[in-house]
Amino acid sequence: MYQHNTIVSGFILVNDATTNAALQEARAEIGEAGWKAGYTEERSKVARAALKKHGAPVLTKLSGTLSGVFTPQTKDAQGNVFQKVRIFLNNGQDSTVLSLDLGTEFCERLLPKLEAAIKDRGISVAITIACFPTSVDRGGRTFVNHVASVKADGQEVKAESHFRRAQDACTAAVAALEKAGVKAKAALDATRKAAKEEYFLGLAGEVAALFGNTSTAAEPSEAAAPDPSSGPSEEVASAIRRIERTEAARLEYAKQWVEVNFTGDDAKQLFDAIEARRKTAA
């Protein structure tokens, strides 16, 4: 599973020890203030050099048949919930998964293009997702945009930007709060942020629905996973029974469902069940 990293300006592995060690080294070299300030060409070079030194992969393109979009939530060990958007690209027996945080610029730029690719060419369209930074001068300051590119059949997919619609939703939410007499900047900022994320979550849900995918359940943290020695939970046991009845042609979709909804030992048991079913269904 990959995620987009703005400092690197590329796709890196999620929860990978080698990748995390490389990023920690780069962060120490760049400095905390520089790291929080975000992308520059020089910082990207430092981060990529650290990743290369540690042997951690960095990709700027992900390709495959678009086979699903999901909107799960994840939990950390402290119980904090994070809204994700996950894009599945099918390559034969394997799937590449791109996991994005909902509130990121890259995610907000990518979603309209995925929607356009599906509506123009249908589900299971073969695409290439790429990322790159561009600089924009505005008001005497330079800003970096993290561009999401989607190509199908070698052609760039064109899509209408949703930033104006999202801004309208934010404006309406803030205006309603101000009308109610709320003037605190922190409250207004929080409302603005929540309204923007709600808008793009709705868009992500619309894209997911094109595949019939509607998963939003929170994934448990690994710390909360049951002791493997106690045997599978009823939820996992039920999923295994479903997998044992699944047709061979739909096992790839079963794998995607497991990747979205299960972690740790639960996921391993279900992946093993899928592989066993592949052999019996062959």
Descriptive notes:
With 282 residues, the protein is an alpha+beta fold. It has three domains: 2-54, no CATH class; 61-209, no CATH class; 225-281, no CATH class. The chain has helices spanning 17-30, 32-37, 41-54, 105-121, 163-179, 185-209, 234-244, 251-261, 264-281, and strands at 2-5, 10-13, 61-70, 73-75, 81-91, 94-101, 126-138, 141-152, 155-156, 218-219. The strands form two sheets. Strands 3, 4, 5, 6, 7, 8, 9 and 10 form an eight-stranded mixed sheet that branches. A two-stranded antiparallel sheet has the order 1-2. A hairpin with a 2-residue loop joins strand 5 (81-91) and strand 6. Helix 1 (17-30) packs antiparallel against helix 3 (41-54) and helix 7 (234-244) packs parallel to helix 9. The two termini are 27 Å apart. Residues 218-237 are annotated as: Disordered.
